[in-house]
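Cont'd.
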Amino acid sequence: MQGVASVTRAPFPPAHALTASFRLPCSRRRCSPQTLRFPPLEGYLDEQFHQLEELQDDVSPNFVEEVVTLFFRDSSRLIGTIEQALQKHPQDFHRLRTHVERLKGSSCSIGALKVKSECTLLGEYCDEGNMDRCLRSFQKVKREHAILRQKLEAYFQLLRQVGPTEKASGSGN
Amino acid sequence: MAGIWETYPNALSLKHKLRALVVNDSKFEQVLLVAVLSRVGVETLVADNEKEALEVIQEGVILDLIIMDREMHDLDDGIHATRKLRAMGVTAKIIGISTEDMREAELEFLNAGADEYLTKPVKKEKLMSILEEIDNKI
């Protein structure tokens, strides 16, 4: 399709049609989200992350990790952009706010609770035009972002060590 | 099929093949939305910005749904793009999405021509109900 910048197919294995032969991985039935079994993540991720886990299945077995990798790629770039924007004089708080909202949006979409909260505060300080508070708040955003990255890296490392979750036996379809 | 409903309670069977466009400059958010939509068989295109979205339309692609992010390169990029698409005669359902949970933000999008406004994170249940509504109207 000429001219269309990004005609996409999903970057992961294509979605399966919901036909009678479609099977969901048994481990996904009536199971608590995997992250609930990893206490270090408690308080850092909300229900939205669990929704991501629901999108992972036998066809896209690494979906969550791949999406998380994308999130950190995007968000790290945004943090760099915010950092550069904060160094500008005179400060363009409106532009800064745009970058913060973009970071907040991604954080919402992955369920990154604390990053989202800190972005909300940073956005408010942008609206106030308070540079000192923006700078302090931005440090907190960076810190929470780094902490979340560490925790998720540890989580995925553990998952790789543990292997696939147990499958229920005699799974119906 | 009972198992599907247990773990993906809003899985639905669409009667028609729908086509959606996700307009969002975040690759991560694009992938998420594509994953949700493609799970129910919606053919999904992505555009990184207003320009690419307009190119899709100019190519003659018929869309049933456009999911438009508000904050792209500039804060109101999505609103501007929505206005442009409507001015071009696009009749697809446009859903504006943003982090702003304020009536003012919603009104801005609706006044630009969006049909609905959702705050992030976009719940798949809500997307499913929108798809169902579109599907039923065809």
